[in-house]
Amino acid sequence: xxxxxxxxxxxxxxxxxxxxxxxxxxxxxxxxxxxxxxxxxxxxxxxxxxxxxxxxxxxxxxxxxxxxxxxxxxxxxxxxxxxxxxxxxxxxxxxxxxxxxxxxxxxxxxxxxxxxxxxxxxxxxxxxxxxxxxxxxxxxxxxxxxxxxxxxxxxxxxxxxxxxxxxxxxxxxxxxxxxxxxxxxxxxxxxxxxxxxxxxxxxxxxxxxxxxxxxxxxxxxxxxxxxxxxxxxxxxxxxxxxxxxxxxxxxxxxxxxxxxxxxxxxxxxxxxxxxxxxxxxxxxxxxxxxxxxxxxxxxxxxxxxxxxxxxxxxxxxxxxxxxxxxxxxxxxxxxxxxxxxxxxxxxxxxxxxxxxxxxxxxxxxxxxxxxxxxxxxxxxxxxx
Length: 384
Ligand SMILES: Cc1ncc(COP(=O)(O)O)c(C=O)c1O
Known about the structure:
By secondary structure, the chain is α/β, with parallel strands linked by helices. Helices cover 39% and strands 14% of the residues. It has helices spanning 11-16, 37-53, 57-75, 88-97, 116-123, 144-150, 173-182, 202-205, 231-234, 274-290, 292-312, 337-346, 368-383, and strands at 25-26, 82-85, 107-111, 131-135, 155-161, 186-190, 209-213, 225-229, 317-318, 330-333, 349-350, 352-354, 357-360. A hairpin with a 2-residue loop joins strand 12 (352-354) and strand 13 (357-360). It is globular and about 65 Å long. Pyridoxal-5'-phosphate (PLP) is lined by residues 87-89, 115, 117, 161, 165, 190, 192-193, 213, 225.
């Protein structure tokens, strides 16, 4: 049994992989995770290939496939149920574009906890007939019964973030997907704030579509995201956002033939984000090596410390204080979040401002001392 103040993996070994820790306490994983030796080496492998070989499409496409496979393993999907996109915005827009809002069923039920981009993608479908019904956020959390009250026989899609970007609240997406399915609606889950931090099994959760980018708990970079589409659904969806990599054979080069890949790669569009795929795979594989379930256990310890330590320092926590229902990302209400973020950076702590809160979001490599130091800095800055 590990000591209660330590995770059940080698924390020191993890920390040696992150050069930034020599000078800084990164508590901004809800926004951008730090670079590791592995992700840097992956980016450099691409640069070496580009510089040394000039062009090596076979190796580069193989690397994209490996990244796709790594994400599939991470979320319990099969590789051919995963599309490679450039952002969650692109993924949700592509799913929305594949739906038919011209009939009686044209309601989208989405929560106010959605990252704005997801809300925008659904609202943009109004021109094609979509009507969005919003599930409220109250006190930083969402009540699943508020979905139930809004999902009806006219509902075409239900859109739920797994983790709320503002305060880390984790929704029961299995239950939400079940509510959607019971009324014949499709479920879309934005897992950007949970992928790599909370175990995900798309088949067990019963969700239809799930998307995440890589630059938060997946330790990656912008410019690549993955979209899971449940196998039985794939052939029914033809996204209006498309391109040559969405075809049966991208290298058939027939501009007059729009054939749809039988796999989720029909949601791929243009030339894949090759360099980002190198980094994405390295990030995901480093988490796999630790195990997301073990990371999650450590996150609960860190979250508890943030909540208790924040309150002890007179700070106000937004959202639930039940660590089983949130990620490690914890939100504290402050007067001027961006000023607080800047002042904390000057003290060597990276935090993340969003609206009325400053978020402290540790990850697998964080220590309880990191949390205490970050809270001390936040309390001092907030007082000032
Ligand atoms: C939950 C969530 N969804 C979506 C996004 C944005 O995704 P993208 O920029 O890849 O479209 C973010 C970014 O912070 C996020 O936290």
